[in-house]
Amino acid sequence: MRRSLVTSVMALLVWGTAAFAADLLPSWNDGSSKRAVVDFVTRVTTPGGRDFVPQPERIAVFDNDGTLWAEQPMYFQAFFIFDRIKALAPQHPEWKDKEPFASVLKGDVKSALAGGEYALVEMAMATHAGTTTEEFDTIVKDWLATARHPTTKRPYTEMVYQPMLELLAYLRANGFKTFIVSGGGIEFMRPWTEKIYGIPPEQVVGSSIETKFELRDGKPVLVRLPEMNFIDDGAGKPVGIQMHIGRRPVAAFGNSDGDLQMLQWTAAGAGARFCLYVHHTDAAREWAYDRQSSIGRLDKGLDEAKAKGWTVVDMKSDWKVVYR
Amino acid sequence: MRRSLVTSVMALLVWGTAAFAADLLPSWNDGSSKRAVVDFVTRVTTPGGRDFVPQPERIAVFDNDGTLWAEQPMYFQAFFIFDRIKALAPQHPEWKDKEPFASVLKGDVKSALAGGEYALVEMAMATHAGTTTEEFDTIVKDWLATARHPTTKRPYTEMVYQPMLELLAYLRANGFKTFIVSGGGIEFMRPWTEKIYGIPPEQVVGSSIETKFELRDGKPVLVRLPEMNFIDDGAGKPVGIQMHIGRRPVAAFGNSDGDLQMLQWTAAGAGARFCLYVHHTDAAREWAYDRQSSIGRLDKGLDEAKAKGWTVVDMKSDWKVVYR
User: Fold this and answer.
1) Which of chain B's residues have a Cβ under 8 Å away from the Cβ of A194?
2) Reported pTM
3) Are B230 and B236 a contacting pair, CB within 8 Å?
4) CB B242 to CB A264 under 8 A?
5) ipTM over 0.85
6) Across B246-264, average pLDDT
7) Rounded to a whole number, what is the distance in Å from the CA of B201 to chain A's nearest CA?
8) What is the DSSP letter of B157?
9) Dihedral (CA of B260, B263, B266, B271) sign
10) In this complex, do A245 and B194 lie within 8 Å of one another by their Cβ atoms?
11) Partner-chain residue, chosen from B190, B222, B243, that has the shortest CB–CB distance to A208
12) How far apart are CA A195 and CA A190, in angstroms?
């Protein structure tokens, strides 16, 4: 009898909590993923509870590519890089005979990327440096206003995940401070993350090139240089978190092996922690990929998530809609 | 008649504003410095006014050494470094015969610092690296709990400026987000800035050494390495601001030539901007120094402040009290 009473009360509590969350997470199907999120948030925000976390320590970190917006058939920033190469080509006649630029100008993406990460970094440098920070901000905004995804034909900023937008807002409504921690370029994200995600520039962590302060005719500018400063991916993510945030997150959200160390770092803190992987399982509405993908590979991370009981979102069954 | 009416109304408005501010800035004498601060805050927070700044863009940056707390007879972090050298000496028998460590161990600060910045960086590396980030956090907190300033005999965290604490709170009450942008070590400041200044770790920008993510027996740690990552001083300050904050401040507060580029960068933005130098003029209650000082030299900055009409706080006449 006592046991069934306890069970009933607990069921009522869980039901009550879930009902409240349903308002804020309408694009999430009821299921274990949604329940895990709501249970965690309820625990850390319940005053006097053993898992209570004071508001200033409610730090939540989100990967961007594949976690907040799509990343197929390649990172959206790569499309930006290719478009910039085309736009800058008149000023660089030598690119016609120089790889990987020549392939990009011929529209041969596959050959352009044959050089792997080195080629991509080379192209990123050539297209991301040489301007002031303010000029670059304008270039990114102008590009996003007109560029369209090759398959969906939609603006890239419409290919953000509605359930994740709701999750960001739900966490903030519960006193969390939400950060992006992405392998993407920090200054490629900042021009639009506040408007699209509600995440201000000072809460964006990403990869970066060096910048240099100069007085040009007495006017101070920050010039972007063709030298890597920081790569915010893999083991770099906890380093970037410490550098920018300076305390360990209590919740971390990713979708690939490049997020694994961020999730490990988060999970290893004392007290309640929450780690979640978005698993791309929906070939009809988005893309289905994991262990074999060259973009956003989720292999070791999937094993570790299962071993450690982290939440794995099944995009196909957990999400009512995908894009906003 | 009309003119005198307008004047009277304006006087009333100014009086009304100042009276309000007086509640929040009780340690500031009425005068041009206080008036300049209050006028600026009133202008940028008045909806519909031509200088109105939306709340998310109200970024205010503060130098730390000499601006929020004292910095004489040398930077407080240098005292920390010397104490660490003494604490670590048993593990480093070679230091007895190696400069600058040998001089520190003999209590000869002057000789220890004879090597200039190079010697200081060398000592900083030797004492700031080799631990995990969490161990270092504890070391700093433990040191602050017991260390005393050689002259005042007070804990260092009591040598923060009461008028600046009020200014921080006044800005935050008006929707500003307050950041520290200091040449000091970022991880030397973070353990205490939230408690003392109300500035959380994620709003602290400073100099840093490299860190590395490692799994130690399966437990993730961030290890501090003896390599400089970033020097957040002089022309580095606008770079640090862009890296961490990603938008230009509307208000900047400093006390030395090392803050000049930060103030220039702030002042050069479009719209209303506010730049303020704390001028150390009070040999009785604190210290008096500017153009000739090796610590916190204010020379070029003082000229530029006068030329550009920035606010220069005369510590002796503007502040009713100095320390909290």
Assistant:
1) 56
2) 0.93
3) yes
4) no
5) yes
6) 98
7) 5
8) G
9) negative
10) no
11) B243
12) 10
